[in-house]
Amino acid sequence: MNDRQPGPDLSNRAFSAVDTARARQRQAIIKGQDRSRWTDLYHRILLWSWLTFIGAVAGLFVTINCLFALAYMSDADGIQHARPGSFWDYFVFSVQTIGSIPYSEMTPKSAYADSVVLVEAFVGILFLGIVTALMFARLSRPTARVVFSRVAIIMSYDGVPTLMFRAANQRGNQVLDASVSVSLAYQATSKEGEVMRRFMELPLVRSRTPLFALSWTIMHRIDESSPLYGCDAAAMAERQMEIIVLLSGRDDTLADTIYARHSYTADQIVWNQRFVDVISLHTTGRFLVDLKRFHDTEPIKPLWNA
User: What residue numbers bound the domain in which 289 lies?
Assistant: First the structure.
């Protein structure tokens, strides 16, 4: 079962600190890479957005045809019915050749033009095959539509300070055998004064669920064994603490494993707040998850000072 966060009636909307929280996506800058990084073009292309990918394919297509148009233009009488010196006519002929379009009156009539057509036909086969493979690779990648709350909260739960955040499956289908791991990253200074980035796994109240379909509130109890024990907001900021979340599971529709990740920095952790309830019962008898209020929190009576 998925967690149902206790809270007020859904008709009562609360203002939240998440309205001013900034989502941070940081990517490391690598300096001093070897030359082999240029051979990893396939991986780079998979990371491109769809707009960048389509734009790059279109740009490459135009560039290839421009080059072959210039090659055809070097033989002024090589293409029948092409206007001499007309780059557009040679460009159109190149597009028709590389796309195997047979409706043009323009045909090669010299040995040189026939040779260029042979080369372009081969390039066209390679271009089509590579673009088709890249399209399939991009479309076939399993993706997760898991949304995490914009902030994490620390509140008292069963009398113990507890770190909480929640995740929801936006597809609404079933993610089987879902598991989540939460780690704490922080700056630590050794006795010799060496500053290093440390990582510690945070034990969770429940790290696995057989079925993740609605909402899941993930909790870590801040007791004496927790690395967060005794920390307040200032201490977390000073030590540059960051909560790193990794969630995985098997998508019942895709029949493949999906992954989602998120992180919370010190300024994205709010104290003495609680999440508002987003799960209710629809008139049809089915559960309703209101993602419009998924990130909302409301203040509670503070039990300790943050």
Answer: 144-299
